Amino acid sequence: MTWEAVADVDQLEEGEPLRVELGGVPVCVVLLSDDEAVAVHDTCSHQQQSLAEGMVTEEDTIICPAHSSTFDLRTGESVGVPEVPTIPVFACRIADGAVHVDVADRRNDAADPAG
Ligand code: FES
């Protein structure tokens, strides 16, 4: 288990996705509130678009910019239409004023979206 700091909380806007790469894995990090951040695989399971280019909603979902698949940012599950496979969710925490992600610690059993 290896936490990696990806950004200071002060540098992030709530609901503004940030794309980072950790150990070769593209990750989409989103600050949902002062005390909650989430991290999902930054690859849409439909046709591999970067989700960090998408839009976060008030329901804490992210809408893919390509064809509007929508994913729950806490579970990685597809919600709405078109329904597509679940995306991986990674362990994410806020500590010492920074957002940390552990890509080795997956919070669901979703397969990596084909790249
Ligand atoms: S690539 Fe994301 S919805 Fe098509």
UniProtKB/TrEMBL annotation:
Residues 3-101 form the Rieske domain. Pfam families: Rieske. Keywords: 2Fe-2S, Iron, Iron-sulfur, Metal-binding. This is Rieske (2Fe-2S) protein.
